[in-house]
Amino acid sequence: MTEEKESKEDTALVKKDNGDLEWEISYCRYALVCAYVTVIGFFLISMATLVIALRNSSVSGLAVALETLLDSVTSIVVIWRFSGPISRSMLYSNPRERVACIACGSLCFLVSLILCTRSAISLVTRVYETPTIDLLYVLSVSGTLGLILFSAKLFIAAKLGSLSILTDAISSGIGALLAITAIGAYYANVWYLDGAIGILAGAMLATYGAGIVTYEMCSGDK
């Protein structure tokens, strides 16, 4: 009787483990879908912004295109992080997660430097380039897509406990914030709003990026 009870308990534990692994694999696939959408979507948005910026000789447009392109690169890191046969050992691979976090954190720090430089120049010179209608359309798409991806990635990161996905989510969220701010500054006719929010967002990215790189490098030494 005791052996039969223990056998049932073991079977229940195996089923529970298999069930946990199934939903973990599902969230891993969702993370990859979000990453691929980010890479493709933000790459196209970056190229569209680049064409518009070159056509209008817009320096700020070039900076936005570069920032958007770097946002898509963080998702490429996430794709690398979760590539290969999906298993529990892959999902919770500390070496891969550490490398991905360091790479994403470094990219966040790089984006923050570009962002703070562009915003500081805008505030010091008090020059605000009025975005063209076509650039506003592109920014609207970028902001909407960024908000959707930010929410999805944040949810998936919480479910999987992944810092690399969380970092990618923050990158998408900052991109969406900047796009919405640029549109708001245009319609509110407040020249310093875009620069001020840009410096704030850049400082947040730099702090987070430096923090996660330091944390992962120190934890790797232990």
From TrEMBL:
Domain of life: Eukaryota
Protein name, as recorded: Uncharacterized protein
UniProt similarity note: Belongs to the TMEM163 family.
Membrane topology: Multi-pass membrane protein
Gene Ontology CC terms: early endosome membrane; synaptic vesicle membrane
InterPro entries tied to this protein: Cation_efflux_TMD_sf, Tmem163
Keyword Zinc (UniProt): yes
Annotated compartments: Cytoplasmic vesicle, Secretory vesicle, Synaptic vesicle membrane; Early endosome membrane
Transmembrane residue ranges: 30-53, 59-80, 100-123, 135-157, 169-189, 195-215
Gene3D superfamilies: Cation efflux protein transmembrane domain
Keywords recorded for this protein, A-Z: Cytoplasmic vesicle, Endosome, Membrane, Synapse, Transmembrane, Transmembrane helix, Zinc
